[in-house]
């Protein structure tokens, strides 16, 4: 009707507010007013013309005043979009869903919108930017007002420290790629219109002042800062702008979206460059960091990160190391140029990756990684101990996380350590044997006995001897759930040791010692040990001071194949520890006899004796002279001791081995046993 369909715009008559009355005031968040409105009336005449004809009065037009606000589309230097995954009251109540959200917040009284935008960006995310683009100001509600929304684009954002958001909702900071933002907009993941507007205005090729090519250039990782500068300058310079827009815009429009992809940096990179990615879950990650620093590859870098590495050589057992900081680094390896990026994944710093790139085939990268690995293993070659990071929701380790321990240094009754080691060895070489018989390729050991009797020490001795990694689980971690435990067990590589220490402190019988905790249940633990998800080829070690508190189901054959008792020190153990300690000192042998005449067998733990000897490092005579204080009124452990306990303990081990052997043989299925049967070794253990 009338002037519909014309592209030229004619002058329009605005509504007039004749009077206003406040009907509700709730402090700074909301004031509701009644406005008396005069509404100009236009009538359309024949021939499509229109003219004003008086006015209509609306006596009570509801008008809402609420604070103006800002929204910021923030893009990091690496080309990632900083957004939140949030639960918002209105989105939940009206749309029944969580939402993605850009940075946003209300403008304080007398505050400039840009100042508010900078403040909110820092407070909410910890990022700052020197490159701001004022996108637009608009009202959220066409009829009722509700303040003004000022929309901004912040480019080249840099992380300066953790934000201190005063937002009330639960939220999670995300760093998304441009593709992910596009998908999220199109999939309706942003639940508020001003947010969609903020991001679309930047992203959409035609919607606002930036072309798609410009956005790609402005937000792409590694875009040359000079190009960014030229582009932004061009926005303020008519001549340069025209040339650039003619050139870039013309080119962009000539090419279809798909063609643009083929010109993209990623595609060109994929064509001419090789990339290797290393995640921090892998020990290689730590090896790479140390290798880069130790070999001076980072001399041109001024962004470093410091960390501590354990060392056998350095005093105090550790030394300071440096690695490349977050971001990009370039170095030459064997005459080849390598580009390296260290990237933090997601909103927390528990998960990281390193990207290594070079032109052409990946050979230089492979050689570089092999060299870093060798360097890592050679440097101090400690044992890799993996623990669970709840932030990373997985296993994490550092190179050389624990120094090695020789088996010789763990003093048990003669031949005991060797027997257990032989059992592990037989298991490690019997994978085919297990497979042929359809048996789960798993073995479990229970180390039980008083504190300080060498259970943990033997674990590390075994790991060092076979060069195995240790995956250590803390079952009492309240964050650890049944399903996470299953996932973790499933991730343990073949031929690794899984260690659950002090199980009795988590479960007495089937009862959790922390009844209110949401952590692992007893059945969850059993499933993780031998359920479908239990890792193949893993060796399980449970340790406890109180075997009697454990539910028989936990240690039944199949879950635990060998129970190994540890005892308070026997006479022969004490003698050997003493002689090890004072080796080379004359008269030690006689003194060791004297020591064992003062301390009867089965009275104190090896840890306690070791602690005593440490007080007299070079003075064995005084160590023996004061040894009486060790046995006066103290058993050295929470497990009741008796003078013949050590001997009982030895007998117990013999019995365990016999029981295990019988049990194992009973369980063997069909095919005839071959000489490589792992249990053939058990007959060797029993002397
Ligand atoms: N049999 C042993 N031979 C050599 N050293 C030992 C022995 N037992 C204990 N020690 C020493 O005592 C300390 C504690 O030992 P360890 O942690 O292995 O004991 P544990 O049995 O695992 O104790 P807990 O039950 O409290 O965990 C270590 O420093 C270790 O060197």
Automatic annotation (TrEMBL):
<dbReference type="InterPro" id="IPR003960">
    <property type="entry name" value="ATPase_AAA_CS"/>
</dbReference>
<dbReference type="Pfam" id="PF00004">
    <property type="entry name" value="AAA"/>
</dbReference>
<dbReference type="InterPro" id="IPR020084">
    <property type="entry name" value="NUDIX_hydrolase_CS"/>
</dbReference>
<feature type="region of interest" description="Disordered">
    <location>
        <begin position="667"/>
        <end position="687"/>
    </location>
</feature>
<keyword id="KW-0999">Mitochondrion inner membrane</keyword>
<dbReference type="InterPro" id="IPR057495">
    <property type="entry name" value="AAA_lid_BCS1"/>
</dbReference>
<feature type="transmembrane region" description="Helical">
    <location>
        <begin position="238"/>
        <end position="256"/>
    </location>
</feature>
<protein>
    <submittedName>
        <fullName>Protein BCS-1, isoform a</fullName>
    </submittedName>
</protein>
<keyword id="KW-0547">Nucleotide-binding</keyword>
<dbReference type="Pfam" id="PF08740">
    <property type="entry name" value="BCS1_N"/>
</dbReference>
<dbReference type="InterPro" id="IPR027417">
    <property type="entry name" value="P-loop_NTPase"/>
</dbReference>
<keyword id="KW-0812">Transmembrane</keyword>
<dbReference type="InterPro" id="IPR014851">
    <property type="entry name" value="BCS1_N"/>
</dbReference>
<dbReference type="InterPro" id="IPR003959">
    <property type="entry name" value="ATPase_AAA_core"/>
</dbReference>
<dbReference type="GO" id="GO:0005743">
    <property type="term" value="C:mitochondrial inner membrane"/>
</dbReference>
<keyword id="KW-0378">Hydrolase</keyword>
<dbReference type="Pfam" id="PF00293">
    <property type="entry name" value="NUDIX"/>
</dbReference>
<dbReference type="InterPro" id="IPR015797">
    <property type="entry name" value="NUDIX_hydrolase-like_dom_sf"/>
</dbReference>
<dbReference type="InterPro" id="IPR000086">
    <property type="entry name" value="NUDIX_hydrolase_dom"/>
</dbReference>
<dbReference type="InterPro" id="IPR050747">
    <property type="entry name" value="Mitochondrial_chaperone_BCS1"/>
</dbReference>
<keyword id="KW-0472">Membrane</keyword>
<keyword id="KW-0067">ATP-binding</keyword>
<comment type="similarity">
    <text>Belongs to the AAA ATPase family. BCS1 subfamily.</text>
</comment>
<keyword id="KW-1133">Transmembrane helix</keyword>
<dbReference type="InterPro" id="IPR003593">
    <property type="entry name" value="AAA+_ATPase"/>
</dbReference>
<keyword id="KW-0496">Mitochondrion</keyword>
<dbReference type="GO" id="GO:0005524">
    <property type="term" value="F:ATP binding"/>
</dbReference>
<feature type="domain" description="Nudix hydrolase">
    <location>
        <begin position="64"/>
        <end position="198"/>
    </location>
</feature>
<dbReference type="Pfam" id="PF25426">
    <property type="entry name" value="AAA_lid_BCS1"/>
</dbReference>
<dbReference type="GO" id="GO:0016887">
    <property type="term" value="F:ATP hydrolysis activity"/>
</dbReference>
């Amino acid at each position: 009707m009338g002037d519909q369909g014309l592209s030229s715009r004619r002058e329009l008559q605005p509504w007039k507010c004749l009077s206003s009355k406040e009907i509700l005031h709730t402090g700074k968040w909301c004031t509701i007013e009644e406005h008396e409105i005069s509404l100009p009336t236009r009538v359309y005449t024949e021939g499509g013309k229109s003219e004003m004809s008086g006015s209509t009065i609306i006596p009570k037009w509801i008008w809402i005043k609420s604070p103006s606000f800002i929204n910021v589309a923030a893009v990091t230097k690496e080309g990632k979009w900083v957004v939140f995954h949030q639960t918002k009251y209105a989105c939940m109540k009206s749309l029944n869903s969580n939402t993605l959200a850009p940075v946003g917040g209300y403008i304080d009284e007398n505050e400039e919108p840009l100042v508010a935008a900078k403040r909110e960006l820092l407070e909410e995310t910890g990022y700052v930017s020197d490159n701001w683009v004022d996108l637009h100001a608009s009202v959220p509600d066409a009829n009722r007002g509700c303040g003004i929304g000022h929309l901004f684009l912040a480019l080249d954002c840099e992380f300066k420290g953790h934000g201190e958001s005063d937002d009330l909702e639960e939220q999670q900071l995300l760093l998304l790629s441009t593709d992910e933002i596009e998908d999220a907009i199109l999939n309706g993941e942003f639940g508020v219109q001003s947010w969609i507007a903020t991001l679309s205005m930047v992203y959409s090729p035609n919607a606002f002042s930036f072309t798609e090519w410009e956005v790609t250039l402005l937000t792409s990782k590694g875009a040359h800062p000079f190009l960014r500068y030229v582009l932004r300058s061009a926005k303020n310079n008519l001549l340069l702008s025209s040339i650039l827009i003619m050139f870039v815009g013309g080119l962009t429009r000539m090419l279809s979206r798909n063609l643009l992809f083929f010109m993209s940096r990623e595609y060109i990179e994929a064509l001419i460059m090789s990339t290797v990615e290393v995640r921090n879950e892998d020990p290689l990650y730590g090896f790479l960091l140390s290798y880069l620093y130790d070999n001076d590859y980072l001399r041109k870098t001024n962004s470093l990160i410091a960390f501590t590495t354990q060392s056998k050589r350095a005093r105090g057992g550790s030394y300071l190391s440096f690695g490349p900081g977050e971001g990009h680094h370039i170095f030459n390896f064997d005459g080849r140029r390598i580009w390296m990026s260290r990237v933090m994944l997601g909103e927390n710093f528990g998960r990281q990756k390193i990207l290594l790139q070079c032109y052409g085939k990946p050979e230089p990268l492979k050689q570089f990684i092999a060299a870093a690995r060798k360097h890592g293993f050679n440097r101090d070659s400690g044992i890799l101990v993996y623990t669970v990071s709840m932030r990373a929701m997985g296993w994490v380790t550092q190179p050389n996380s624990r120094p090695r321990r020789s088996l010789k240094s763990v003093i048990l009754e003669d031949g005991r350590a060797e027997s257990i080691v032989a059992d592990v060895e037989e298991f490690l070489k019997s994978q085919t044997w297990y497979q042929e018989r359809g048996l789960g390729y798993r073995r479990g050991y229970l180390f039980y006995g008083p504190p300080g009797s060498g259970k943990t020490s033997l674990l590390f001795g075994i790991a060092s001897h076979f060069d195995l990694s240790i995956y250590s689980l803390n079952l009492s971690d309240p964050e650890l759930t049944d399903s996470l435990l299953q996932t973790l067990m499933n991730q343990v590589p073949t031929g690794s040791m899984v260690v659950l220490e002090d199980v009795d402190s988590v479960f007495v019988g089937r009862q959790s010692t922390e009844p209110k905790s949401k952590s692992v249940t007893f059945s969850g633990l059993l499933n993780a040990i031998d359920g479908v998800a239990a890792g193949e080829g893993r060796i399980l070690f449970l340790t406890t001071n109180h075997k009697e508190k454990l539910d028989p189901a936990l240690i039944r054959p199949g879950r635990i194949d060998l129970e190994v008792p540890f005892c308070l020190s026997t006479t022969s153990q004490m003698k050997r520890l003493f002689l090890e300690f004072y080796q080379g000192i004359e008269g030690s042998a006689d003194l060791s006899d004297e020591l064992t005449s003062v301390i009867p067998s089965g009275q104190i733990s090896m840890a306690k004796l070791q602690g005593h000897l440490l007080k007299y490092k070079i003075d064995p005579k005084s160590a023996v002279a004061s040894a009486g204080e060790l046995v006066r009124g103290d058993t050295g452990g929470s497990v009741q001791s008796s003078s013949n306990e050590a001997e009982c303990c030895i007998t117990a081990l013999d019995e365990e081995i016999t029981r295990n052997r019988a049990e194992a043989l009973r369980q063997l299925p069909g095919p005839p046993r071959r000489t490589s049967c792992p249990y053939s070794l058990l007959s060797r253990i029993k002397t």
